[in-house]
Amino acid sequence: MMKKLILAITMFAILFSFAACAGEEQPDAVVDQYFQAAQQLDVEKMSTTILPTNTEGVELTEEFLDSEEDVYSDYFIEYIKGNAEKMTYTIQETTEDGDQAVVTVDCKYIDVAPVLEATINDVFSEVFDRAMAGEEMTEEETAQMFVDSMKAQVESTDETYAEKTIDVNVEKLDGQWYISDINDDLLDVTTCGFFAASETADQTLPEL
User: What is residue 111's DSSP assignment?
Assistant: First the structure.
């Protein structure tokens, strides 16, 4: 009888231990939540996965789609949303060190760089020709030209995918895991390569 009681208590303790471990959120769970939200460009959900004390990262994410209502911004949002849902990701491994962890993720996404580069070349060529002819364009006209050209490039350019393995830093705060910073690699993946491609564009493209 005593042996059965001891065995029962031991088994209960083991099961309780397993249940406790299963119920505790793992570092990779918050990264998974972030990417699921990113596939829908659900900025509100994305921002909830970011460390609350990282106000810059939270603001950057919340303001990502909070742009002015104009033809360029509207089309940009529509284009990125269409590509974001095609992004795929696989969480490969997690390395924990106390309340800090690094989650390694393999990402595959549509590379918008070819479309953006072709659009810039096309727009600059047209703007230059008009300038030589003495025609000055307004910001609204330039924005519309950019959108029209980009739409044409999207239709004529085959989709190409980029693959990138990134490390996402996460941190535990008050017993909950959060993404501690939004680095350039993570931002580039969630914008389907637009972030990296636009860095080059910003050096040459007039402000729209």
Answer: -
Q: What is the CATH number of domain 26-204?
A: 3.10.450.50
Structural domain boundaries of the chain? 26-204
Q: Edge-to-edge strands of the sheet including 100-110? A: 88-97, 100-110, 161-173, 176-179
DSSP state of 92: E
**Rounded Cα distance, 173 and 175, in Å:** 5
* pTM of the entire predicted model: 0.76
Q: How does pLDDT run along the chain (208 residues), one tens digit per residue? A: 433 333 333 333 333 333 333 345 799 999 999 999 999 988 889 989 999 887 776 666 666 555 556 677 788 788 888 899 999 999 999 999 999 999 999 999 999 888 888 888 898 898 888 888 888 888 888 889 989 999 999 999 888 899 999 999 999 999 999 999 888 899 889 888 877 777 665 555 544 4
DSSP 12-40: HHHHHHHHHHHHSPPHHHHHHHHHHHHHT
- The candidate with the shortest Cα–Cα distance to 35, out of 99, 97, 95, 109, is 109
First CA to last CA distance, the chain: 82
